[in-house]
Amino acid sequence: MLIKIAFLNLLRNYRRSIVGLLTVGFGVAALFLFDGFNKGIMRQYKDNTIHAKFGHGQINTKGYRDQIFEKPWEHWIENPEPLLKEVAGIAGVSHIFPRIEFAAMLSSGDKTVGGRGLAIDGHEEADFFNTMNFTEGQAFRDEPSGIIVGKGVARALGVKPGDRVTILTNTIHGSLNGADFTLVGIFETGLKELDDSHFRIQRAVAGPLLDTDRIESIALGLARDEDWPQVLETISKAHPELELTSFAVLDRVYYQHAVDWLGQQFLVIQWIIILIVALGIGNTMAFTILERTTEIGYLRANGESKFEVLALLLWEGTLIGLIGSVFGILVAWLLNITLLRDGILMPPAPGLTRQFFVRVELQGTMLILSCVLGTLTAAIATGLAASGRVRMSITAALRYR
Amino acid sequence: MNPRCLYSCRQLSHSYQQGPLQFPALHEVNLDIASGEFCLIMGPSGSGKSTLLNLLGLVEPVQVGSLSFQDEDLRVITEKKKNYLRRHQLGYIFQSFHLFDVLTAAENVEFFLTRQGIPAAERQKKVQQALEAVDLWLHRGKRPQEMSGGQRQRVAIARALAKQPAVIIADEPTASLDQDTSRTILQLLKDLCHEGRTIIVSAHDPLARDYASRVLLLKDGRLDARGGKVHAD
């Protein structure tokens, strides 16, 4: 009966109830959409990190990443083939990418620039590392002398796909070595330091060039992001001499800091939205409750305790919150499948040089949390607005005009 | 004390504070009301009728003097006990009806029965009895705004009646009604009194005198000795 009265009371002054519902609804829609937008940006960052640079994580020899060595190749992974086979067979691991990073000079015609090379297995990496954003040409696969370079490197060398690029580097024994490559593609990750210095060649060519059969690291691609802890545990147990590092740590500045920053920003915006909803609904309910002061007095005169009258009013606030929240979720969902269907074009993020599209990723947990927050906020605001009225003396409430 | 005595007031005084000023409303009222009386409180505006009614209705706290209801000393009674008495022993009827606009006549009557924790089947029975008593059973599905002033007041009486309280307190129940309707309402209250309930009514309307078994005259917060029993029945 109490809930029925609370519900019917919403229809008493339906215009005011609609204002309350809209206040909660738009607040909840804003919370839900903003979280989805944030998740979309985080997903973009994550995908960029995983599918343009590191995979889900990387295997090195223990302590390798924490120190600077005069001869780093002495700490590379020796005789990697059995290990690669073993890692490939671990549950959750879908891809393995042996890699060697090295410094080199790149020349084309009379131009020479310094760069950081990454020796990879082109065929295996081409499909997984699919967010490198090739502005010209494409990723190399099986071309033995293919090379891809960052946009800045290409600009400095004045090369385009099909042009010849010569690489000069030192073997691990210190002697100078070089080889000619054909430019297959030019990538633009959006990270300036990467685009201005990085290039990639086949590991099969890099081995003789550097005169080593070792590999520096193994990047891992997983079937699901959530498999990382299990893979980490399996490999760490079987190979205590190795060390695994997740992409979030490998790319702390770009990925983890962005995630932390966005998370904190969301928290602030969330509180602002909650405050606006609380003020809006508190104001609406304060008017409603003021109008019903004599009714409160009558209920109290008939034996309803202050708490019971408060409960009735709280039900009304809760119903406005709940109905408004459901409305807000529907609005957010409709916006997401219509106006926001193609995502939102974002200007380059801090540290990036290119624009990107963010899709709003609405998630179940945030749907529930938004509803709970909307409903709780409405209930609490109603409680605050009502607490003074229910504490009024019964006769004062009955006399109220 | 008379074993049928329901209320007992001794030296009951009451005043209202408004800013730095204190306005006396009741002055040393001594009064006993027995079970089954139809007690009419009359007096000019500002004489203290509503204050006395509110004190008897347990909605105003006792300030000076003593007041007991069903042998409960209202000076020391807990809020919980007061709520219980208001819910189970007292029924209220007001000049402005105070019906829930959003509920039908039957639902209005049922509301406080629900709050009393009465099971649904029994509630329906009581609702029917109460609405039949005020001749509104056929109008049970109407909302207050679809009813006349007299019908609304009869719903308010049915609502008070359905609780089966020991006392029905009515504050100016006929003030906004025409004379015919007022007679109907007062007769209803008198019938309830005959069924054994105590009726306490405050009114300006001299018509009410014809129905009361006792008239209390208030002037400047004091009981006038000219009041007293007006009907033998």
Any overview of this molecule?
The complex is a heterodimer of chains A (401) and B (233). With 401 residues, chain A is an alpha+beta fold. Helix content of chain A is 54%, strand content 20%. Chain A contains 14 helices and 12 strands. Chain A has helices at residues 2-12, 14-54, 80-88, 122-128, 151-157, 192-195, 203-210, 228-238, 247-250, 252-291, 293-301, 306-337, 364-390, 394-399, and strands at 57-61, 93-108, 111-120, 134-137, 146-150, 164-170, 176-187, 198-202, 217-222, 242-246, 344-346, 356-358. In chain A, the strands form 2 sheets. Chain A has a 6-stranded mixed beta barrel with strand order 2-3-8-5-7-6, surrounded by 4 helices. Chain A has a two-stranded antiparallel ribbon with strand order 11-12. In chain A, helix 2 (14-54) crosses helix 12 (306-337), helix 10 (252-291) packs parallel to helix 13 and helix 12 (306-337) packs antiparallel against helix 13 (364-390). The two termini of chain A are 27 Å apart. The mean pLDDT of chain A is 88. The mean pLDDT of chain B is 88. By secondary structure, chain B is an alpha/beta fold. In chain B, helix 3 crosses helix 4, helix 4 (120-133) crosses helix 5 and helix 5 packs parallel to helix 6 (179-194). Chain B has helices at 49-56, 79-88, 105-115, 120-133, 149-162, 179-194; strands at residues 5-18, 21-34, 38-42, 64-69, 72-73, 90-94, 167-171, 198-202, 214-219, 222-229. Chain B has 6 helices and 10 strands; from the N terminus they run E-E-E-H-E-E-H-E-H-H-H-E-H-E-E-E. The two termini of chain B are 22 Å apart. In chain B, strand 4 (64-69) and strand 5 (72-73) form a beta hairpin. In chain B, the strands form 2 sheets. In chain B, strands 6-7-8-3-9-10 form a 6-stranded mixed beta sheet, with helices on both faces. In chain B, strands 2-1-4-5 form a 4-stranded antiparallel beta sheet, with helices on one face. At the A-B interface, helix 1, helix 11 and helix 14 of A face helix 2, strand 6 and helix 3 of B.
